[in-house]
Design goal:
By secondary structure, the protein is mostly beta strands. It has one domain. It is built from one helix and nine strands; from the N terminus they run E-E-E-E-H-E-E-E-E-E. It has a nine-stranded antiparallel beta sheet. The longest helix has 10 residues.
Length: 125
């Protein structure tokens, strides 16, 4: 695992092949995690990647959360992060072109804080 500079943003995406999240910084995957907590979050979907995935029916990394890393739990660790009070956010490339609130299905682009874990993603505006 490489060192993560907590002053620089990270890009976090679901890695279904490994059943965890990948934490990337400066174009390099720095860590794997089963739980990640970010602040100053932007939820991003690259439309060209989304369209390629739909066209080819093959997963690719085109959607992710960008923010400053507060904490994460490696897949081998037994500790748990405390939950974030907020609302769920989901992304389904076949139904939406952005991340959306799980209840209202309105687009979610920014969040003050977000937690990504085994249950999904929770954010607080």
């Amino acid at each position: 695992m490489d060192v993560i500079d907590q002053n620089l943003p990270v890009r976090v995406f679901k890695n279904p092949k490994h059943g965890c999240y990948s934490i990337m910084q400066r174009g390099v995957i720095r860590a794997s995690a089963r739980q990640v907590r970010l602040v100053d979050v932007t939820f991003t979907v690259r439309e060209k990647g989304r369209q390629r995935m739909i066209r080819e029916q093959r997963r690719n990394v085109h959607a992710y959360a960008v923010g400053r890393l507060l904490d994460f739990v490696h897949p081998d660790e037994s500790r748990q992060l405390d939950g974030v009070e907020g609302r769920g956010v989901i992304y389904n490339p076949y139904r939406f072109d952005s991340f959306v609130d799980s209840e209202t299905q309105t687009p979610v682009v920014h969040a003050r804080i977000a937690q990504l874990d085994e249950s999904g993603v929770v954010y607080a505006a």
